[in-house]
Each structure stands twice: as structure tokens, then as C-alpha cells.
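#struct-help
A.M.: can someone run this one for me? Single chain, 541 residues.
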Amino acid sequence: MIKTQLVEDGIYITIKDRCYVFKNIQFAAYQLKVNAKVFKNDDAKDRYHIDIVNLYSSAARRAFAKNCSVLLEEEFKTVESDLNKIITLLEEKKEELKKGSPASGGKLEIMGAKERTEALEFLKSPTLFEEITKDLSSLGYIGEEMNKLTAYLAITSRKLDDPLSIMITSRSAAGKSSLQDAILSLLPPEDFVKYTALTGKALFYQDEFALQNKVLAIEEEAGSKEANYSLRAIQSSKHLSIATTGRDSSTGKLKTEVYRVKGPVSIFFTTSNVQMDYETANRFLRLTIDESQEQTRQILQRQRELETLKGLLIREQTEKIIKKHQNAQRLLYPVKVINPYAESLTFNDETLRTRRDHRKYLNLIKTIAFLNQHQRKQKSVNLQGKEVPYIEVIPDDIKRANDLAQQIFAHTLEELSPSSRTLLNAIKEMVGKSTDSNETKFTRKEVRDFTLWGHYQIKTHIKELRDLEYLIPISGGPRKKYYYQLNSGIDGNDRLKINLSPPRLRSGQAGNLGKSGRSPDFGSGKSKKVSLGAGRGKRYG
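D.P.: on it. C-alpha cells below:
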């Protein structure tokens, strides 16, 4: 398996433990000249061979291969075969290499044998997912196990053909940015770009391969509103293109210039905006931060702990944890993922938007299998004379995806924002303490006193509850108090149901299940129902 990484002015290629770094690559009619550095992927950093070689010259290539075979302690034929594969690879990536290295920097990171072994042991661990959440806790992000795991899977999916995108929503100061920063720290620097803001056409003028199979992180959704169209387009079409008018430098005449940016890309941003653009929001998995008092108590305790000697020891381990995850991410190679159980899965088909959300569910399953690639047997299939490697989804992947989906889709498909849902439940609790809850009316100040939320937050989320008719304004106007009442005609708990537990497999699939031919257990217990939607009963579209 050949693994490649674009670096500044060139490319880094690994074949087993043999490493080839080619820079200043020059393509000509009868030349493929490169500045080459060859070494073995071990801890001996001072043993390498450097040369300037024309790979199209048989004599030069043979001399180069001979010198490399001595250094790498490999047979001449092995190195010669490597070079033939590399020439084909460079020709395939000719246009990409001419464009230069990615905008994220392209700094060359070379793993030693010890680092590589540690990263592989991590990827092969039977408790891989538990270790991910534990490591993120060690980095200072307490609790939120589902959020941490889902966000980690989303950034891992960047290497797939249809990656997942994440939107974290919560009230201000809840910890959205802390989760984003913790997750991004585990990514290799060359695999993500992060911006504070994006203008309307900023993405259209990126280098062609600057975003391909990377994570595009934006600190706050408010900073990317102008770019919402381009964000939607690159998620759906997996590329961007724009035609603009420029002046020919030689003739002075106007001409059309076309700029292209290739995807796919995984997008990751945070927001506290409850009125976010619907067309953009429905392309994301929506996570929400735990805003409970118990979670606040744990966070404050952790902050105090980090000021102690124990905290100093924890921080000393931070760099090691980050390095392990970055190296592990580098060891995940592109491979097709096949789900032999796909036809047996079920998903709600009552609403139009589930056409898009069903893809997210399937891609969540694929990402879990992809992350486990070093624990799976690699298979291959011959397609038009070419061997295509792939790995298969197993029932445990679907079970884990279902466990996550129960919580994820409860927020993703909910029209009511998570914070407004929390406020609604608090209002119900407040009203429930009165003698006649059906007739109880209340003001925003009473809600503020009961919940201890700020004025701006109460005003924002009550507006959403009123717009979606969970609350009915009884009276009020300019210079008058507004009184509200719960809408007894809407049951806030009557939400859309989605069954994530599959039916029995068809007889033709029994061969995948062993001798019993029974359906695998994709979940614990009976069929799992996930409550989704805004609580309006059956919806159309």
C-alpha cells in the first residue's frame, strides 16, 4: 500500500517502511527531475540518501535505485519496483503537484518507528472508542462522551468520499469552542484549516486542492454567513467553480477565467444562533452542549484541579496524547467501505428531509468501520481490470452507530433548537408547580427568575417558542408586560419516531451471518425508537 502526503514544494511517499521525499518536481517532455531524499522509517534520523535524479532516464534511475537499495537494505528489484510505482503516481498527480502544497502549510512530519508503533497499537486497540473519549477528558474536556465521539468520527470522515459535517449549538459560554479546539488539536496540522470568518466568495479562490479531504473549521457561524452558499455547494457537489472576467496580460482583451476548488470537505463550526439558515443547517449533524448544573460543577472542579501539582502532571501528558492521535490519523489510509447489511437497515421515510439525513446515518456507520480499518481484514474486488481494496462493516459498527444516532438525530432533525427545548422543559416544570397548569400565565421575568437565565437568552428563546407555537402570547404590547401561556394543543413530547433497528436479513444475505443465518443484533433489546422533529405530529416535507 502506497501512502502519500503533499508537502511544501513536493510529496512524501511511504511504501511499507521505505520513505521517499521528492521536492522541486519538474515535468518536461523528456524529463521528470526531482530532488530526492530516501530513508528508512526508523529512529535513525541521520541515515538517508540525497540526490537530484531524472526519473525518466533509465541509467540515472538504475544508479539511484542501486544506492537506495544499499541504504534501505533491500533488494535492487524491490527499490526499482518502488520507483516505477512512484513515477506512475507522480504522473497521475501531475496537475495537483503543479498547484503546489495545500494552504494548511504542508509541513513535513515524519514518524519514527516508535511513534508509528504507538499509533498502530492505538488504532488496533479493542477499546479504541473508549480511549478516544478518555484522551479528550485528559485534554481537559470533561463529560460529553457522545459529543466527543461524534465530533471525532466527523473529522475522521474527511478521508471518505462523503464526509460528515458538524454544527455545535448551545448558549454562550457553554463550551462550544472548547470542544472544537480539543477535537481539532488531535488532527494533523496539514489536514485542517481554521478561519474566524469567511467572505462570500473566499472559498472560490482557494487553491484547487487546498480543501480536498480536509476539515474546514469556522469559529462561529456568524463569521461565515456570507459564505453559506459556497459551504452548501461544496458539501453537496464536492467541488466549487466560478467563472470571472479578467484581462489578458498579452493582448489586453477581456477573457473568462475559471477557478475550481475540489472537495470533499468536512465542515465544523459552532453557533449560538437559534435562527440559523435552514438550508445550511440541514446539511450538518447538530450537537448540543450539556448546560446542566452538574456539568458546570464538574467543569469548575476540573479548572481548579488544573491549578494544582496534579494539573501540571496532566498538562505534561497533553503533548504526548495529541501526537499519538495525529500520527494515528496519518495512518488511516483511503479505502472503500462496504456495508453488507445496508439493505436490512431502516429509517423514517415520512418526511422529505430524511432523504438527506439517511445518508448521514449510513456515513456514520461507514466512518466507524473506516476508523477500525487496522482491525479489519482487507479484501479486494476486480473492477475493469483494476484491483480495488475495501473493508466491510460489521454488526458492532451498526450497533455503535445506532447508540450514537439515538442522541444525534434527536437534535439534528429537531426544528426546535436544543436551548429552546431546555427552556420549554423548564417552563413546564415551573407551570407544573401551579394549581391549574392549563390556565397559568407567566411573564418573561418569572421565567428568568425561575431558570436563572440571562435576559437576552430568555428573550431569544421565548421568541422561538412563540414562533413555533409552543407558547401563546396572552396579552402585551408597547410599554406593557407580555403574558404567555403554554399551548395545551401541542404535546412537546410527541415527536417524530425513527426506527433504527433493522428487520431480518433476506435469505440471500444469510451467507454473511455464519451458519445460523439469523439477523445480527444491531442494538440492545427491542427495536429502538428515536424521537425527532418539532413535535407537530405527522409532517409532510
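A.M.: thanks! The first strand starts at residue 2 and ends at 7.
D.P.: also worth noting: Confidence is low (pLDDT under 50) at residues 101-106, 503-519, 524-541.
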